[in-house]
Amino acid sequence: MLADVPLDEEVVLVRMDVDGEDVEALLERGIVPGCKLCPVRHAPAGGPTVYRVDGDLIALRKDLASCLCVQTALAARRSPAEGRKGAARQAPEPAGVVDAT
Amino acid sequence: MTGTDPLVALVGPPNAGKSTLFNTLTGLKQRVANYPGVTVERRSGVVDEPVGSVEVIDLPGVHGLSPRSLDQMVTRDVLMGNLEGGRQPDAIVLLLDATRLRSHLMLADPVLGLGIPALVVLTMGDELGRRDGAVDPTALAAELGVEVTLVNARDPSTLGTVRRFLRALHTGGEELRACPAIAVADAAASEHHPGRPLPVVDLFAERRKRARALGRSADFRDPRPSRMTQRIDALVLHRLWGPLLFLVVVALVFEAIFTWAIPLMDATEAGIGASGEFVAGLLPDSWFRALLIDGVWAGVGSVVVFLPQILILFFFIAILEDSGYMARAAVIADRVMHRVGLQGRSFLPLLSAYACAVPAVMAARTVEDERDRIATIFVAPFMTCSARLPVYALLIAAFIPAGSLIGPLGWRAAVMIGLYALGLAAALVTAAILKGTLLGGRSAPFVMELPPYRLPTLRSVLNRLLDRTKIFLRRAGKIILTVTVVLWVLTQFPRAPVGGAPEIGDSALGQIGQVIEPAIEPLGFDWRIGIGLVTSLAAREVIVGTLGTIYGVENEGEADFELQAALQQDLDLGSAVALLIFFVFALQCMSTVAVMRRETGGWGWPALQFSYMLALAYAGAWVANALL
Ligand SMILES: Nc1nc2c(ncn2[C@@H]2O[C@H](COP(=O)(O)OP(=O)(O)OP(=O)(O)O)[C@@H](O)[C@H]2O)c(=O)[nH]1
Ligand SMILES: [Mg+2]
Prior knowledge:
The complex is a heterodimer of chains A (101) and B (628).
Chain A lengths: L10 E6 L3 H9 L7 E7 L6 E5 L2 E5 L1 H4 L2 E5 H6 L1 H8 L6 H7 L1
Antiparallel strand pairs in A: 1-2, 1-5, 2-3, 3-4
Chain B lengths: L6 E5 L6 H9 L16 E7 L2 E7 L11 H11 L10 E7 L3 H4 L3 H5 L5 E6 L1 H6 L6 H8 L2 E4 L9 H12 L12 H9 L7 H18 L9 H10 L4 H19 L1 H22 L4 H18 L2 H17 L1 H15 L7 H6 L4 H7 L6 H10 L8 H12 L4 E3 L2 E2 H26 L10 E3 L8 H35 L15 H13 L6 H9 L6 H13 L8 H8 L2 H13 L4 H11 L3 H24 L1
Parallel strand pairs in B: 1-3, 1-4, 4-5, 5-6
Antiparallel strand pairs in B: 2-3, 7-8
Helix pairs in contact in B: 8-9, 11-14, 11-20, 12-13, 12-14, 13-21, 13-24, 14-21, 17-27, 18-20, 19-20, 19-25, 19-26, 20-26, 21-24, 22-23, 23-24, 26-28, 27-28
Bound molecules: guanosine-5'-triphosphate (GTP) and magnesium ion (MG).
């Protein structure tokens, strides 16, 4: 889970167990299976954590971060296929279909 | 602006620099800030080129074209050409932040895929270079099939290609190209799964892959992370220093409102007094002179005096927003917001409510979840808008001693902070109640980009101050002027037996006041305050002008009557605090009610909000008056 990754350790996103409605907010900002994430800072008093995502800084709450399944950059390089299989599990989402047209 | 000017839409992700480019091109003053989601409405302007003029529209930032939030819908509607009476834009300028190309390039396919002639503008070219990043616009252009230019949106000398593109709309130059391969990635993706729409995740995975490929072919080299941003964040988001710094900033702002503003206010006051006497000297003694001096000068003048304090507040807000600090404040605030069922995204609307609830209600469009949006709108008027500032400042200066509370923080600033905190607390409690009842349901996720810190530009800070001055003076000129004139007339009738103006208590205004008095007596207010409360239903600061007029008429002849001194005779500490508390809670602002109705689509929410806030105001004031 992304929420458990220690600061400054880079990981690769494998699977997103997020509701269809909410997942798009992440996807649009480049948080897509296969992207690299690195927690850089925790906000004070148990607030959101700031992640570096492909050069952007994005803050996510713990509840959302624990729905994102990740693996270390090293493991990801060894089994690249794993990520794609997991990602395909997502249900179709009407809003995304509109986008595709 | 003729309807036949070619139409160009500025499209791009939030905080990419669209409004900055819009301002540089048109010379207009659209609001710019280093915070994603500042623009929520389209705004159009005209660029005059020698070959003819072009109409440019600045749009809310978007990550995609799906109708997920109201502001994203505005952009989508404009691009699709289904905006009321609208036409489809003749061309698109797609703005992408050159330092964040990896994610921003994901917007290229959906937007260019619309098949409208387009120019891709990579902004922040200056920052990319400074942080050792690189990109080759020509290579990217070859890949996309449309022109690409790297610019600094703040610097007109880098905008040659943009202007050439705009001119091409008249001359039909070859710059005017649409992307040939329609939505390459999306189209390619659906080929793999004929007849079946792609799940979103896969769709975006494809889009991201394509964005990477584009980045690679454009020789995009990531800029190194801004070291300044890392250093400042280490402090601002520090578990101990972060919140402490936040408190110090707040204390500093309020202390400044009372200390720095004093000389400026004295000067303004002297200016108003002197100009009043000068004008009075020019006119013969007549009812018109009395109206002008006792009515208008006293009424409008007593409000205008507070302009310096408002400008100081906005000076700080502009600096905080433009530097990038506000986005961090939203992250820190998210925890509290989450507790009461809101989210960090509600922070910007609530923050702009400190200026004025009207733009705040509009800004709530960036809150994607509909229930969260309504809850945000509902609590926004509790935030201390700048129209309350004159009322607070007047009463605090009249009733709270100037001494020091702790160190440099004086009693007055502390009481002011207390009033702001009380409004905030009311907002949070109300949000919690709402989300637990009428607007219950699951809580929306919080995803917030943090822009790098930037040095605020003098231009955007000055713009902001000028803008506020205009709004403030326009209100003083329109609402307050009208109200004071009407009030003054009401103080002059019925004429006394000897033919002069009546004693103010016997005037029509006094009689109206006496009708209201029983209702507000339990709060410790007399009829003058009562009249002020009624007129302040139009806009809060009107009460200051109203009292200025009432006391101005009462003290007719005394050139320099003091509003503060007059108030001290009418109110004691208890009723003064009661009045302050009344203003913390009550929804005395017709413009807010009107915009609420528009944004919630009916009278239900505004009616509920008005009654709720009035009940709270009355109860709060009653308690304060009874206790003190
Ligand atoms: N250094 C640099 N800063 C820029 C440039 N363009 C914009 N900025 C800054 O970037 C920030 C965001 O600019 P805006 O024009 O408000 O962005 P926007 O695209 O209108 O954002 P939204 O309205 O939120 O969608 C501001 O602080 C600008 O001063 C640029 O080319 N170079
Ligand atoms: Mg903007």
